[in-house]
């Protein structure tokens, strides 16, 4: 599986909740030189920006649950965050 959010969540649930694969070792096959799949952080003029990712709404309980299960942290952008969409 790949090293994006889909591959990471699949690996987490397979190794933690599948009765036949509990504790199994999985291999990651990623075609790019980095992990993250469609998620990426870019640096422009000394500032870091999230690129190609999605906005996770606080009421998206599936996304919030996946943040909580493996013990990930949410970083609040604060009030001075700008949102832009470019193609």
Automatic annotation (TrEMBL):
**What SUPFAM superfamilies would the database entry show?**
FAD/NAD(P)-binding domain
What name is this protein filed under?
A: Amine oxidase domain-containing protein
GO term, biological process aspect, one: prenylated protein catabolic process
Q: Please, which domain of life does this record's source organism belong to?
A: Eukaryota
The GO molecular function terms of this record are: prenylcysteine oxidase activity
The organism of origin for this protein? Panicum virgatum (Blackwell switchgrass)
- In Pfam terms, one family for this protein is NAD_binding_8
Fetch the InterPro entries from UniProt: FAD/NAD-bd_sf (IPR036188), Prenylcysteine_Oxase1 (IPR017046)
């Amino acid at each position: 599986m790949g090293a994006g959010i889909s591959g990471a969540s699949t690996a987490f649930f397979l190794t933690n909740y599948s009765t036949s694969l509990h504790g199994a070792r999985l291999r990651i096959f990623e075609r790019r030189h980095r992990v993250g799949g469609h998620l990426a952080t870019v640096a422009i003029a000394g500032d870091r920006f999230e690129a190609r990712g999605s906005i996770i709404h606080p009421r998206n309980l599936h996304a919030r649950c996946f943040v909580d299960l493996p013990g990930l942290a949410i970083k609040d952008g604060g009030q001075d965050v700008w949102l832009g969409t470019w193609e």
